[in-house]
Specification:
Blueprint: H1 15-35, H2 39-55, H3 58-65, H4 67-74, H5 82-85, E1 108-109, E2 120-129, E3 139-143, E4 178-182, E5 188-194, H6 207-214, E6 224-231, E7 234-237, E8 240-242, E9 248-255
Parallel strand pairs: 1-5, 2-9
Antiparallel strand pairs: 2-5, 3-4, 3-6, 6-7, 6-8
């Protein structure tokens, strides 16, 4: 082994990295001892991560399994604190959002074909501030998949993060099952749509798909409707309502007030 008395000057000490890495290292050590993780198992995990990187699936796997809390810290936690102020839980917008959706009546119907396949779903609720006050004039920007689990309105470039998941239909009108609804004088809204379809979480047969199976997790996401909720006097909120195959559903969203 050779040594040198010349100190490195091209790399600076990073105190933030030190604190986070020390915490991660301690947490992994605690889990390893508690679960009895062997060195062989660690090696298998490293090999699998290397395969994910080589296949190009590592970013998607990281987002699917680890990124939600980091995104919440980066974006939602700046203003939405459900445990303290009662705001609806923040969710990431995701890659399927398309701006400029048309406004519909309240009560209204999301833009769809006259004979749109799928089971009818009625969604109604009230938008409130974190103090519980109804918010008239709140704008709810909605988007969802068709009954067979496909989004409309995305360009091939926008659909890039969804490549291989078979959740985009380029032949549908741009704002199919996309629309904005404005709450009434009592903060209420109601619209008719169809029960959204099931979206795959990983490309079937991929390494990520294999990993989800090994973890005992389904390669699918809960049926859901996305929404941006905006109001002139409050922060924007991006909740996501999960739905079941029922004919009606009532939701209540609480938008964070400025400064909360």
């Amino acid at each position: 082994m050779t040594t040198t008395d010349t100190p490195r000057t091209d790399i600076e000490f990073n105190p933030r990295l030190r604190v986070v890495f020390d915490d991660l290292q301690k947490t992994f050590g605690d889990v390893a001892l508690r679960q009895g993780i062997t060195f062989e198992e660690l090696g298998q995990a490293i090999t699998y991560v290397q395969k994910l990187v080589a296949s190009g699936e590592f970013p998607l796997a990281t987002i699917q399994l680890l990124a939600i809390r980091a995104m919440e810290v980066s974006y939602g936690r700046a203003y939405a604190h459900p445990e303290k102020d009662g705001a609806s839980t923040w969710m990431a917008t995701g890659p399927a959002y398309v701006p400029g959706a048309p406004q519909i009546d309240n009560p209204g119907v999301l833009p769809m074909a006259p004979d749109e396949p799928g089971e009818t779903l009625l969604v109604s609720g009230t938008v409130r501030s974190t103090s519980g006050k109804p918010l008239p004039g709140a704008v709810i920007d909605l988007w969802q998949t068709t009954a067979d689990g496909r989004y409309a309105g995305l360009t091939p470039e926008q659909a890039g993060p969804l490549d291989g998941l078979d959740v985009v239909d380029f032949d549908l009108p741009k704002y199919h099952l996309r629309g904005k609804i404005v709450t009434d004088a009592e903060g209420r809204y109601e619209y008719r749509t169809v029960v959204p379809g099931v979206e795959a979480a990983a490309v079937p047969g991929s390494l990520l798909d294999d990993l989800l199976l090994m973890l005992g997790r389904a390669n699918s996401r809960a049926r859901h409707i996305h929404a941006h909720i905006t109001h002139d006097d409050h922060h924007m909120l991006t909740p996501r309502s999960t739905s079941t195959a029922t004919r009606s559903s009532t939701r209540s969203a609480r938008a964070p007030s400025p400064g909360t």
